Queue: 3 jobs
Job 1
Amino acid sequence: MSQHFTGAGVALITPFTKSGQVDYKALETIIDNQVKGGMDYLVALGTTAETATLTNDEKLNVVELIKEKSAGLPVMVGMGGNNTRSIIKQIDKYNFNGVDSILVVTPYYNKPSQEGMFRHYTEIAKTSPVPVVLYNVPSRTGVNLEFDTVVRLAEASENIVAIKEASGVLSQITKIGKYTPDDFTVISGDDLLALPIISIGGNGVISVIANALPAKLSQLIKLANSKNYDEALELHFELIDILQLIFKEGNPGGIKALMNHQGTIENVLRSPLYKISDATYNEIKEAYSKLK
């Protein structure tokens, strides 16, 4: 099992100022909160970061700040796309100092076959100087990375070390855990399913709620990974309402609303995303007030 990618990881948001610029000061505060909250690793430029709306310079600056403020926590960087050659060129030119792995989402829009995705990932794994984490999120990409393809990939390349699984299909996730090598890591890509996935052999989560509640999320995962399921379930029950609410109108609108209520960031997203409704914002405030 890859020690870098077990436990509690956070899919960091990108905060923006009221004028729509990247708020690097707020991002620094968020990173500090993750370190103090006991998180195990940091994930930059994922879906939650609104990466599709960032310029190349902004992406580089965000990653540099995360590396600088990580306090020794491993850093995973999103580097996916639907053009294999383009990703390989990006890897060839990238500065990997301080980067511990890359998170590579399944190719979106062009909907490749399983064989196409197998070849896509093996080519990336050959090129990458750091370990590759697969990212399966069919609700966003329109294609599912099936369990037997994941097994093929894990066996084909020692550089493919983990999968962030956000299909929501527990039978598929269970079979990935059963048939992949013992040192292959299965990471929940869904806060709501983190506890169930750990209970069937997963190793942690890349979390959205941790942006706002790192200590609670970190504690939940530590309890689950130590098989202290009674206490983990109690904490899961405490968080369930707010977890559902932050995804009610899409991600990262909900988590940004919660962090705005906490006073950490402005409630600003980049178009075509937009802030959540006042009604859901108020529901999130109420659920937050009930946390212990």
Note: The chain has a mean pLDDT of 96.
Job 2
Amino acid sequence: MRRIRYAKPGGPLLAEEVPAPSPGPGELLVRTEAIGVTLPVVRKVREAAEPIPLGGEIAGEVTEVGEGVTAFAPGERVTGLCFGHGYADHALLHTSMATPVPPGASAVDAVALVRSGLVALGALSAARPQPGETALVTAAASGVGHLAVQLARAHGAARVVAAVSDAAKAPFLHDLGADEVVTYAEESWGEPADYALDAVGGELLGPALAALAPGGRLVAYSSGGGTVQAYDLLVGAKTVTGFQMARIAREEPARYEAWRGELWRLFFDGTLRPRVHGQFALTDAAAAHAAIESRGNLGKVVLIP
């Protein structure tokens, strides 16, 4: 089978032929039909001290199951987060990370919706949204952000403000229901928001916090780091909450499963519309990474083996 790897920090990404892996206890071997490209993986290629397996969201058909697996069988279609080599024709998926792909949904739908949607819905839940509030979403055109814009509206936001790097993304976001689109470079991001979902971090944490009304809530779920001054919290009685999807998956499986169910329900009733920026061949993984690094993507970036 084909697999994408890199030999040194920064790449380049290379294709190689290797034997298909065998599933261990609790694992599924999945013939991948779609692979979601994520910003954390792109960053790790650039920043990790040593090369790592290129993991991420996968969707496809189960071809073999490991010892002790009873919940899934060969021939079923699943999606989930692969922590090993996911940029490949076949990948291993642990059953704890796997969920069925319902009839009527494609593999591309699954990788565009489930993991990104779980992060968006989890961050939104951490913000404790109330009907009639104003929501602010940064990285609003990203794979997670464009779903967060729609989910905020579905959970009662009266006004949704989308923050992006480029004003050219505005038509895309207005079509998804954003009331206003602002760029990071603008001095003011409009009327204050009640809560903000920040996927950027770094130097953007300060402006995101400043864009909140008194008592506002900022949820930080970026891998980009950043620092918040305590005084900026005190003066406006604001709060910052960190959100990590892995903790929910590990410690609150019932909530994790309920969120997955909500995402599919909203997808099938037309409330939630996952968008795909581009479908790249597996051997074009470098171009897929470049689309995310350039911050030009509108929605999810997907590899198609």
Note: The chain is about 30% helix and 30% strand.
Job 3
Amino acid sequence: MGKIAYIYPGQGAQKPGMGKDFYENSPASREVFDRASQLLGLDMKALCFGEDPRLDITEYTQAAMVTTSLAMTAEMEKRGLPKPRVTAGLSLGEYCAMAAAGVLRTEDAICAVRRRGILMQEAVPAGKGAMSAVLAMTAEAAEQAISSIADVQIANYNCPGQLVISGKTEAVAQAEEALKAAGAKRVVRLNVSGPFHSPLLKKAGEQLFEELQAIPVMEHAIPYVANVTAQYVYGTEEVRELLKRQVYSPVKWQQSVEAMLADGVDTFVEIGPGRTLTSFIRKIDRGAKTFNVEKWEDLEQIWNQ
């Protein structure tokens, strides 16, 4: 393998049964799940492995996703699989990236996202905010199309031809029509519980910042890429501020991947349920090598490279 990045999916990738095979086969993974259950007072096995309706509720989703991805990472580290030179994660996945880079302890990352999920869930009353995916339109054209509409903004720059907008429900509806008129191939309303990565969540970000003061941020051996800036983070000084801003600022995922590619990264390992980030990377650079770790047997394909 060449220069490797570990990358982690965000909210929306969750699925029933995620991580169950790791729990059954790996003592290292089992320890992460069991520790999360103890810390949060939640039965993570019931939440992640069965048909638990809470899995799609933000305040539970976030802890479940981070626990699962870090449980998988624990087994990879135990095996001595090729180590990353940088890490990154989409929105919620940034906490996994930080733990994998050594910025946060695993248990602190899990506890932080539990509080993050609760704060985000409570930030905007149900029905007051919305998000929509915008397909087959350039970022520049989308930004221009919605520039005159208040209370809506680009929330995610995922890859060429795929953006997400977020904001007040009525503003998002207005923006949907403006984007279609400006040439978007499709604009699809997302089934989410809030207007994430919009200024409507600024208070939640500020509340999270205060709570993050109690969580130690450690010097790390490898950098991670911050969603807010799409830049490598080497030190500890700005970590909490970046996490605060991340709650209500656009996720610059495409730009983050481009920064890693420019740094010589040629292999991306997506760790967690689904293959969302892999599909984005293929649209950003078809020449990049990608692997997924979401099932136990996926570890073998990496081990054999």
Note: The CA atoms of residues 13 and 274 lie 6 Å apart.
